[in-house]
Amino acid sequence: MNDLSNSNRVLRSRGMKFPLDTSVLPQRIRTLLRTEAYEAKEATAIEKLVRKGDVVMELGGGIGFMSTLVATKTRAKSVHAFEANPQLIPYIKQVHAINKAKKAEVTHAVLGAQAGEATFYVRPNFLASSLAPMEDDTDVTAVTVPALDVNAVIADLKPSVLICDIEGAEVDLLPQMDLTGLRAVVIETHPQWIGKEGIRKVFRCLDDAGLVFFPRWSHGKVAVFRSDW
User: Fold this and answer.
1) Residue 216 class from Cβ within 10 Å (0-12 exposed, 13-18 middle, 19+ buried)?
2) What does the angle CA 13 – CA 14 – CA 15 come to, to the nearest 5 degrees?
3) Every domain of the chain and the residues it spans
């Protein structure tokens, strides 16, 4: 059952617990969690895709939802989340802790072509925070965050599954990545940011790596790609 427990101040969703911190979880997100609608399409795809022994790499850790799901609801060996927003890191770690998600870890970093630093734009709605400024930005904080070489990370982790939700940055990052070791990708695309040509670029990049669009588990902006079908 999904409910708000007044005794320990958590929201429950898909059998997972999320601390009720209204500075992190706005009303809309709380409602989605309670009704099990938060990241529902991605969650359904991941539970079907992830196999025993998979190493899962997540770009865009959010509130720790997907990494906790992978760590506690699948037979993955491990899940490694990367999140750029510094305000979310303590919350993600708390979510991992209260769910005993021992196979999950989070790293505060942007992944890119080289290690160093990057500018990240933090907005009150964490879902709108991104690497890109927006024309109508009125309440935004530009912060400097660590940057890691994405292919060095891939070489170290050797992931077999990729989860990606990085608010349009996928169009620039994916072509830089060595995707050849991946068996599956679940990506939330952002056509509102990257347009038709960006969507074509993302699909072409994954297809070139042998990851073919899998329509059965895809839905709307959430696209699944597999090399094993």
Assistant:
1) exposed
2) 90
3) 37-226
**What φ, ψ does residue 202 adopt, rounded to 5°?**
-65, -50
Token pair listed for 98? 């209260």
Q: What is the rounded CA–CA span in Å between residue 143 and residue 123? A: 11
pLDDT tens-digit map of 110-153 = 999 999 999 988 887 777 777 777 766 677 888 899 999 999 99
Q: What is the pTM of this model?
A: 0.91
Residue among 43, 73, 35, 51 at smallest CA distance from 219:
43
Pair 225, 185: CB distance under 8 Å: yes
Count how many Cα atoms sit within 13 Å of the Cα of residue 135 in the half-sphere of its side chain. 1
Structure tokens given for 41: 């399409």
* CATH class for the domain made up of 37-226: alpha beta
Eight-state DSSP code of residue 227: S
Burial of residue 92 (CB within 10 Å: 0-12, 13-18, 19+) is buried
Max distance between CA atoms of the chain, in angstroms, equals: 51
Helix (H) / strand (E) containing 16? strand 16-19
d(CA 149, CA 177): 10
**Neighbour count for residue 48 (Cβ, 10 Å):** 14
